[in-house]
Design a protein that fits this description.
The chain is mainly β. The chain contains two helices and 13 strands. The protein has one domain: Acetoacetate decarboxylase-like (Beta Barrel), CATH 2.40.400.10.
Length: 277
Amino acid sequence: MGMRGQLGKADFGYSVPVDAPLYEPFPLHYEDVSILMYPYATSAAAAARLLPSQLELAPVAGDSAGTLAGAEMVFAKYGFSNVGAYNEVAQVVAAIYRGSDPTLAGQPVSYAVRLHVNNDMAMSAGREIGGFPKKLGHISFEEAPTYLSTLESPHGLRICSGELHAFAKLGEQKDFPPAMQQKVMPFLSLRVVPDPASITAPYTPSLCQLIYTEWVLTDGAFWAGRGQLCLTGASDLHPYHSLPVIAQAPPMSPQAAGTGLFRGKMTIGKVKVLESF
């Protein structure tokens, strides 16, 4: 008789491989952070098709007909983090939570539609812990008089890009009022673990959860920016263009979110399973 296996749950590392985990638990800490932010108006009908039923679209100012939704594209370079240095592209929809968890009821959140990174540790930790729908891609991030970040997948096929000239410094966070010295960005994402036995549509996942995370920007400065967001529509495999740009937001101001740049530090600390369904 062969020797019986000796590996039990008490011996597992935090993630797989259990004897040499790819990543460790949150929090995640980032330094040397540069984030290009492009809020824009898109089609409400298109956004609603990508939004879980526990959420509703946040209203867009001036849109009395309700045909618009708020969205945002983010291009980021993280020079250091405890999941490695990497670049990221993310697309989110502005929403309001209407689900069963009373702690977040009626609160505005950003729902993560799709993301790309160029680091396997960041991809796996983001997907498996936070439910962020990350894929790997080729992401450039040029810090020059005009910032330029592009996503290609595969290499040579441009999916989206953002160019930005940071023309006016809005101030150091330490000089802002106390309530603004930490900018908290609340996110909801959909964590799905497939059922190996469910092989025909409609699929029934082994696990389906809404995950809440808070991204906190600190020790930095915000800059108003002029530039252009481009969603090329070149790929149906990475359909950022399914939320088309109807109107890009004007430059960021101290009073309102807009097109701009953040440089500083970031922490992702608070992570919570909001709902399992």
